[in-house]
Design brief:
Strand content: over 45%
Radius of gyration: 28 Å
Helix content: under 10%
Number of strands: 44
Structural class: mainly beta
Distance between the termini: 37 Å
Length: 878
């Protein structure tokens, strides 16, 4: 389908169905509970997404496909995030037309060795989180169609707070701030695939992940302590690395007021993240190839050996103004204090001695050069750093949930860097060893983002729109980046020793205002059509860049003074419209088919516009590209789903995405010069097509055996990219002349998960799970063929296990192993090797029996009765 027909066809189709739908209006609104009394509101025999208070079965409602819906559970509150059928309430409430995959708190406890909140998505279809270590601040979400360097092509929310940092699109500062959510406060996690809802901006092209946190109806207390031990061996590093995570949660309700207090404290040591390499053979180094197999990249030592200490604290308040209107406020604080120590493989014990000076004779004259190259010395210097960050978040919302003719939500949130400094020496020092006194301080203080949303949904009870659920809203956001890198006279003192000279400064602001509307029309009992449109006005302003090149020791400026002058970037403006459409057919109570199509416009982030570029041949910093065009994608999906046995689902999705002007960092020519640089540029056209299969079923062969599996095949291709040029540094000269037909970087062709969980009774849960991903390509030319070396993107197959034991209603214990086979693989960085987990948890108030006792409840477990285990059950499709 061309853009011409999409822009015109969806809107025309919406009007046609709107005119035809009155003749099909034969249904009533569901009965809803107001103050415990039920009243009839005429609008249909199927229930809406409000989530009734009473915990009784409701007539099944047509809705989005949920891949891993948990077993039905009673709804105890109008504000419960889970409906009686296990589906997410917010998806049903707003009639979102996306395919949805879900995982609940109970499933997380049984299946996953969870230390950080992002661990919760480990076995969800097509998803992978680039989590390199415990407490990783750069853990980017990989989705169906986009990889681990595309942080701005998906959205991660925690309730009303956006965790994704849309100040960048990378695997660094753009990563979601997962640390603001403690694992113990998670109630459920839902993934919406594709940009098919008008409610979300074009960043949803890869999907929307929503973490819903707990808000109990009575006193609940939980405390969990987890110890993780990793045995890491690679090249010159042989360590046992210990991490400890303590998570707590307290919540209660007093009349109309409820609250939660949660926190998380993580401290420990991490495996190396970076390595210093050289093409020269140096005694004591480890002989390795470079990425392209063309020369050496011998390993001299490691960096990123991080000892970190992170604290997260959150207060969440809620007040029920009426039975159907609730206000919430959330305050969160997160701090990170970490220190990285380089490990030098060239000397015994890994000390900071770099070989001194070496005499060099040239035309009879003797000079002395460092034993290691300047690049190697500076790499060791930057690997010795301390990072300190403090982040504060505020979010407030007022929302209604009546399930009647009209509901609304108004929310606002703000995310602010109170402090962010990473200090490091400029270089390792010669001839005596150690590090230079002077250094640099990378700062993000002053970076923030603010969002506002107001939305409503109308469900007319009578008249020509009786079968319509019409949702609409207004959105506004502002993102500001402040990222100077200052030269300091005493690196350990940070800003207190600022010399007033910056190696680089990147600043800028983006703003977006949007209006959207969506109409979910019930054409017949078995047919629903959804049409929507989103209009956005975007502006980039206050773009400011400044840079200066320093000598090898960082003690003096180099280059012409004119290159040190600031650059005030031009303002940019853009207005885009994004139509959406979906048609859903309910063949019977088991079979559902849905065809969706949607346009997504993603605007450039501040970092893409204003972060400085580097000339490939000289290392000189140059002006970035402030004239990037917004990305434009047309995504489509055909999803067919079948319910299996009443508590399981099987789904196959055929998906396609055609993107124009994709913003990707690549080697290109500086305008009006013959110099090449690595910078953000618009890639003319990319296409991502594939198939996703997902299945979830309980009682498979034996009572209590649950199977959850998924497989994804993706054909991600560059169709046209005329701005790309081959690079000698990437071994692309002279053979590579075009990248048309090549795989898109950072995106795998194959992914798969399989998780088997056996619950023989209410006390025990045994899980064995596997994860697979094929190789990623790092370069546009797909010529980084080496495996198992630093900066490679290897395939991997990792097997995990977990045993969860509930001793009584107060205490439970976990034992698990991630990466049982100790598979060693790189995704640019080395990823964790075999890791053992031990956890103990105390909780009060969660049991529904109201058992007395703070510690002992009279139901303490003894030896398991294995005679009742492995009871065969017949397979039932229906």
């Amino acid at each position: 389908m061309t853009r011409y027909f999409l822009l015109r066809g969806v809107s025309a189709g919406a009007l046609t169905f709107a005119m035809l739908s009155p003749a099909l209006a034969t249904h009533n609104l569901p009965t809803i509970d107001v103050g415990g009394q039920r009243r009839a509101a005429h609008h249909g025999t199927t229930s809406h997404a409000a989530g009734p208070v009473v915990a009784q079965p409701a007539a099944p409602a047509p809705g989005p496909a949920v891949v891993t819906a948990p077993a039905p559970s009673p709804v105890v509150s109008r504000w419960s995030p889970t409906l009686p059928d296990g589906k997410p309430a917010f998806v049903e409430k707003w009639q979102l037309p996306n395919t949805v995959a879900s995982i609940t708190r109970q499933q997380i406890e049984r299946k996953i060795n969870i230390l950080d909140s992002e661990d919760a998505v480990r076995y969800m279809p097509s998803l992978f989180v680039r989590k390199r270590n415990v407490g990783d601040t750069q853990a980017v979400l990989q989705t169906r169609t986009w990889g681990i360097g595309s942080s701005a092509r998906s959205l991660v929310y925690a309730d009303d707070l956006l965790l994704t940092a849309l100040i960048a699109n990378d695997n660094n500062i753009g990563a979601p701030r997962w640390g603001l959510v403690a694992p113990e406060e998670i109630e459920r996690v839902d993934m919406l695939y594709g940009p098919f809802s008008a409610q979300y901006p074009g960043n949803s092209v890869g999907g929307v992940l929503k973490i819903t946190t707990r808000m109990p109806e009575k006193l609940e207390v939980s405390v969990k302590d987890t110890v993780a031990i990793q045995d890491f061996h690679l090249w010159g590093t042989n360590k046992s690395l210990v991490n400890n995570v303590t998570s707590m949660f307290v919540g209660n309700r007093y009349g109309d007021f409820s609250y939660t207090i949660s926190g998380n404290w993580q401290r420990g040591s991490q495996q190396p993240l970076t390595y210093t390499t050289t093409p020269v053979v140096v005694p004591g180094s480890y002989i390795m190839s470079n990425l392209y197999g063309t020369t050496y990249a011998n390993v001299l030592g490691s960096g990123g050996n991080l000892n970190n200490d992170q604290v997260n604290a959150k207060l969440k308040l809620a007040y029920d103004f009426t039975n159907t209107i609730r206000g919430t406020y959330t305050f969160g604080f997160w701090s990170n204090d970490g220190t990285s120590y380089p490990e030098n493989y060239l000397v015994q014990g890994g000390g900071a001695y770099w070989g001194g000076l070496v005499p060099v004779v040239n035309k009879g004259k003797v000079s002395y050069n460092p034993y290691l190259s300047t690049a190697a010395l500076q790499n060791f210097g930057s690997a010795y750093y301390r990072v300190q960050e403090r982040i504060m978040v505020n979010a407030a919302a007022v929302k209604s949930n009546s399930g009647g003719p009209f509901d609304f939500e108004v929310s606002a949130s703000n995310f602010t860097y109170l402090n962010s400094d990473q200090v490091a020496p400029w270089s390792a020092a010669v001839p005596y060893g150690g590090y230079t006194l002077n250094g640099r301080d990378t700062v993000f203080k002053g970076t923030y983002w603010t969002l506002f949303d107001a939305k409503g949904i109308a469900r007319p009870a009578e008249g020509p729109l009786v079968n319509h659920d019409i949702s609409f809203g207004v959105h506004g956001d502002q993102y500001h980046l402040n990222n100077p890198v200052w030269v300091t006279s005493n690196w350990a003192a940070g800003m207190a020793a600022n010399t007033g000279v910056a190696t680089s400064i990147a600043q800028g602001t983006t703003r977006t205002q949007a209006l959207w509307a969506q109409d979910a029309i019930k054409l017949r009992d078995d047919l629903k059509f959804t049409a929507g449109i989103r209009g956005e006005v975007w502006q980039a302003s206050n773009g400011y860049n400044q840079s200066a090149n320093l000598n090898t020791l960082g003690t003096g400026l180099t280059g012409a003074p004119s290159t040190w002058l600031p650059i005030y970037q031009p303002n940019q403006y853009s207005t885009r419209f994004s139509p959406k459409g979906a048609l859903e057919y309910f063949y019977d109570k088991n079979w559902t088919a849905r065809a969706s199509i949607g346009m997504a416009n993603r605007f450039p982030t501040v970092s893409e516009l204003y972060n400085l570029a580097t000339v490939s041949s000289s290392g000189t910093v140059t002006n970035p590209n402030p004239n990037l065009r917004p990305e434009n994608a047309i995504s489509s999906e055909l999803a067919i789903e079948r319910k299996i046995g009443g508590n399981g689902t099987a789904r196959v999705s055929f998906f396609d995405e055609q993107m124009r002007d994709a913003m990707i960092r690549q080697v290109t020519l500086i305008p009006a010069t013959s110099l090449s640089t690595t910078a953000w540029t618009n890639v003319q056209r990319i296409r991502n097509s594939g198939i996703e299969v997902a299945i979830q079923r309980e009682d498979v062969g034996f009572k209590g055996l649950e199977v959850q599996a998924s497989a994804t095949w993706l054909n991600s291709r560059i169709i046209a990219n005329p701005t790309w040029i081959p690079s000698a540094a990437n071994a692309e000269v002279p053979w590579a002349t075009s990248v048309a037909g090549k795989n898109v970087p950072n995106v795998p062709n194959w992914r798969g998960t399989l998780a088997l969980t056996y619950r023989p009774d209410d006390r025990w849960a045994f899980t064995l799970a596997g994860r697979y991903q094929s190789k990623l390509w790092r370069t546009m030319a797909n010529n980084d063929v080496a495996y198992g070396i630093y900066q490679a993107f290897d395939p991997f197959f990792v097997v995990d296990t977990k045993i969860n034991y509930k001793w009584n209603d107060r205490f439970s214990f976990d034992f698990g192993i991630d990466n049982i086979g100790n598979y060693r693989y790189m995704l640019f960085h080395p990823f964790p090797q075999r890791t053992f987990f031990f956890a103990a948890k105390y909780e009060y108030g969660r049991d529904k029996k109201g058992a007395p006792g703070i510690f002992f409840t009279g139901d303490e477990g003894g030896l398991p009765d294995v005679s009742t285990w492995f009871q065969p059950v017949a397979f039932n499709w229906n």
